[in-house]
Amino acid sequence: LISSATSSLRMEKQLLEKKLQDAQMKLAEKDGDKEKEIQSLQRVIAELELQLRVEKDNKESVLENMRREMKHKSDEVEKLSQERRQLIDSLSQAQEEGSVLRETVRRECGERLELTAALAEARDRLMEFNKLSGTFP
């Protein structure tokens, strides 16, 4: 009976040791798989971090370019505004000069008409004088 029980316990022990070995092998396999998965995930994380840094650098570069472009456009707008003010001032001055010139021309035309009338009157008087003094050379 003892021998039979011992034999039975030995077989059960061997069976349990086999199951333990199988379980340990499966555990070792799972540990290996998990380690591989961890390494794979670490690589993915490293790649994503690198990609994030590249994207961040690109974003900062684009942002800096946009800032420079905005500054350039702002300077250009300021320059154009200043040119516009100068043109408006020049136009105002030219209009004022035009008004002065028109007034001068109007006065000179009036004077010319007066001089033309005076000349015509003087010519008429001279002709009349010449008729009256026609006998005198």
From TrEMBL:
* Annotated InterPro entries: LEKR1
Regions annotated as coiled coil: 6-97
Does the keyword field hold Coiled coil? yes
Record key words, sorted: Coiled coil
Keyword Disulfide bond carried by entry: no
| Protein name, per record | LEKR1 protein
